[in-house]
Each structure stands twice: as structure tokens, then as C-alpha cells.
Amino acid sequence: MKNLILLTSAILFSTLFYRQGIGLNLSLFTLLTIIVLVINNKTIIKTKIYIIKIFAYFITGVVVFLYKSDLTIIANIIAFFTLIGSISELKSSIYIKFMNGIYTTIVAAFSLYFDKQTTEIQTVKKNKINYVYWLKIIGIPALFLIIFISLYRNGNPKFNELILKIDFSFINLQWILFTGLGYYLFYNITNPITIDPATSLDLNTGNYLNKNEIKHLSPKKIKEENKLGIVLLYLLNALIILFLITDVLYLSELYQMTAPELSKQVHTGVNALIFSNLLAIAIILYFFRGNLNFYDKNKGIKNASFLWIFLNLTVILITAIKNMEYINSFGFTYKRIGVLFFLMATSLGLMSTYFKVQKTKNLWYLFRKNTQIAFAVLILSSTLNWDKFITYYNINYAEQLDLKYLINLSDNNTFLLKGYAEKGNLNNNDKFDIDVRHNNYIRKLRDNSWQEMVFDNVKITE
Amino acid sequence: MNSTNNMMPILLKAALFATVLFWTLILSEKFEKGYFIIAIIIISIIPIFIICSLAVLYTILPLFLLEKKDLNSHEMFQKYFPYYAIIIFGICCFFVVNSNFDEPEFMFAITVFFTLMQSWIWLCKTGNKIDKSKK
């Protein structure tokens, strides 16, 4: 039964991907993978975490069809590996799941083969393949089918026509090899394995710092470190407050700035912010790496750290305001959205550092939480048609429109631009560029095979 | 772990495996008949052997030689194979994506990947036999 499922999946895999671009096929592959995994292990639809992972993977599959982009394809691949890794070991951290997912997908067959070879005691004798049985199962029905088809072909000209129309020309040696690759892939994902040292280490490592596992320092050294931390963090707090005051004053001048000045201000601000936040997290992690977490008089250094986290968050907020002002004036671009994403990621990083210190968590906690957040953000961000969003915002709300930038985005905004060109007062050059792009896209859509179809194909047939 | 003592047969097997796989993939796309292609396939064993040997000797063998603990082949396999497979897979993917999914590069990457994975199995299996015979 399992072999039949694998074989069917492999043939479907070939049908979907052999000499095809990405489109509907990836969405159908997502569905096929989920069905095969559920058939192979029915318990996965009863566990909440599996369902969440399956849902995330399914969503990324759907968005590939709705608005294919590099981001949606990458999100789909990452969700696929994470789901497979979850089946390998449910309780591991998300980055271990991802690694286990890759490992299972690419070489589970090799690993299982090697394990089989090296297992010294084999209690169960390997069943011999019953060739006669398989010959009967496949050979006899095939023989009768051929006989009856030739009989019916002679008896009914319509049936004969239908049989002649069936085109098996796509089946060649390369197609068979590709199907073999599909079989290998499905065999691997239905036989999940784990990277042993990494997974067991991850499972045995909790989220909390253990007092007994820390290398103990003498009370004198702890006291000195506490004092050093307090002095350093309060000085840094004073510095950041001074920086914030000047930055707030500078905010009022934003409205008078020219575009290049504002751009320079935002980008240099972000670069400084990247470094200062990484340094902030590193300093806090250094002081709270061990003994100070359990020191009786650590309230002072903790408060200084929390204040510093709060002030860094304020710097992020001010940079976000500058970026938003920039966006209000000149519209969205990927770079500006990237800045917003970075600011969000930094804020989340600082918040997880706060919880690490507050609740005496370890470094693993930080990795786990931050990778979980990154995964969620990736999946959520893939659900938005960014090119269409950027185009819609810029043509409707931006004070200054950079049409060349919009024309150079992916095909996902083509229809929106075409509509804008038909309504708006554009110069002939821009209209011409948009028309050329629109026509090329329509041609591309019409050339798509059913496997490569995207949602825009449905739109043009309406 | 003494699998490294008997490298030559493994390198030869790897070269033969890679030749068969590579030419099967190439000829599956466009089958050519004649003595000329047979001659090319036979001659290609030499560069394929060199590439395979370099890849195995420079990427897999150092792991066996540099391992300070006296691990048996199964432990070596458990410890290094997963990361090795993931890294080689990443490099092959990078190579394929960079070549814009061109078929010859794709076939080359598939050959490299499967040959190296199979070489690991041969290397560890050889070590395993030697380990057992020592006991």
C-alpha cells in the first residue's frame, strides 16, 4: 500500500514539475505532500502543533498560486522543511526542525540504508520479494486490458479515436528518471529521521538557566562584575538619553528636508541602529550569562538593563517615524519596507532579551523564540502581495510618484498599473512602457501550461 | 576508524558510479548512438575519477583523519554525515540556482550530490567491516 502511494505521488510529481516552471504545480504539490504525510501518519491531524505547521505550509502553497514571487516560493520551501522536521521530532526547536526537515528530505534513504547495513542483530528476517505475486498483480490485468482495448477499438470508431488521441510521448527515460527523483523525495519524507546529536542536545536543553550548571565565580568577582555592569549601563543610558533628545529635536526639522537629505538621514540612522542594538543585546547577554542572574543584589543592574532596552526601543520608534515620514512623501519601496521589517525584528529581539533577563532564561531561549518569530513573520509576510501593495499605495497616496520603480517591479502589479495608465494622465513614454509590460505579461500567461498557471490566468480568461 | 586505509577501491567505485549516473542523465535528454559517444564515455572516466577523488579526499577524508576520538564508522556517520549532506546540498543548490537551472549544471549537481552521499556509505561500510574483523 505504501509503495503504491509513493509510486502514485512520484508520477504526480513528474506530471507537475517535469519541464515546467513554478505556478499551480507548487500549490498542488503542497496539497499532495500534506495528503501523503497524513496518510502515512494519521496522528498528525490530531496534534495542534502539526495542524499549525500544516496550515502554514498550506497557506504558502495557496499564495504561490495567487501571486507567485520569490518570497512566496522561499516561504513555501521553508514551511515544507519545517513541517517535515516537525514530523521527525515534534518537540525540538524550530531551527532543529528545519535542519531535520532538510536532512530527511535530502538523504533519509541513505541514512536508513546505512543503519540497516550496520544493524548487527536483525530479529526480523527480510521478506523475500514475491515476484510471481507481483507478476500476477500487474501482468494479468495489463494483458487483459490490452486485449479488451484492441477489441473495443475495432468495435467502436469513437473509442478508437479516443485511444489514438492519448499521447504518451512525454514518457521518456528522462521523465522516468525524474519520476525516480520524485519517488526518492516521497520515500524520504515518509521516513522521517533526525540529526542525532543536535536533536537530543536540543531536547535535553531547557529554556531556563540552571544554577548548578554555571561555572561559579567568587562572591568578590560577582560583586565587581555587578558594579561594572551598573556603571557601564547607566553611562550608556545617559548617553542614549542625550542622543534621544537631539534626535527628537531633529524630528521637527524632518518636514523641511529634501528627499536625498531625508534618505541619507534614515539610512545612516538605521545603520547606526543596527550596530547599537546588536551591541546592546550583546552587553546585556554578557552580564547575564551566569552568576549575576542569581546574585541577591542584582536589582540595580537589572533595572539599568531594562531601562536601556526601553530607551533602545524608543530609538527604534523614532527611526520608524522618520521612515514613515519618508514613505509618506516618496511612497513604499522594498528597501523602505526592509527597514520597517528590520525595526520590527530589532524590537522583538530586544523584547525577548528583556524576558530572558526578567525570567532567568538561557541563550537557547533567545534562539528558540527569535527563530519562531522569524518563521511566523516569514509566513505572514508571504501572504501579502507586496508588489501590488507598493503600487497601490504609491499611486494613491505618495506625494511623489516614481513610476519607473513601479514598472520595474514583478508582474504582480501589471494589471493595477495598466488600470492606472488607462485612467491617469501619464506621458506617452510611461504609457508605452506599461503597455509593453502588460502585453508581455499577457503573452507569458497565455504560454503557461496548466502546471504553470497562476491566479492571473483565471483573470484573463474571465 | 580504519576505512581510510582502503581508499582506492572506494574512489574507483565512486568514479564508476558518477560516470554511470552522469551519462545516464545526459543521454536521457538526447540519446546518441555510435562508437564516438562510447569513446567519449570511456575517456570521461578519467576526469570524473580525478574530480571524484579530489572531492572525496578533500571533503570527506579529512573528517575521518582529523577526528581525535576513536569513533566507529556508525558514530562517525551519525556525527558528521548529516551536516556534510546539508552543506553539500546547499552548495549544489547554489550552483544550480546560479546557473539559472540549466540542465547540464543541474545534472552535474545531482551527480556530485549522489556520488558523495554514496561514497560516505562505502567509506563507513568499509570501516565497519574492518572494525568487526578487528574484534
TrEMBL record, chain A:
- Transmembrane regions: 20-38, 50-67, 73-90, 131-151, 163-186, 228-250, 270-288, 300-321, 333-355
Record Pfam families: DUF4153
What keywords does the record list, in alphabetical order? Membrane, Transmembrane, Transmembrane helix
InterPro entries in the record: DUF4153
According to the lineage, what is the superkingdom? Answer: Bacteria
- Where, if anywhere, are coiled coils annotated? none
Protein name from the UniProt record: Uncharacterized protein
Q: Which organism is it from?
A: Polaribacter porphyrae
Automatic annotation (TrEMBL), chain B:
Q: Where are the transmembrane segments?
A: 38-61, 81-100, 106-124
Q: State the superkingdom.
A: Bacteria
Q: What keywords is this UniProt entry annotated with?
A: Membrane, Transmembrane, Transmembrane helix
Name-wise, this protein is Uncharacterized protein
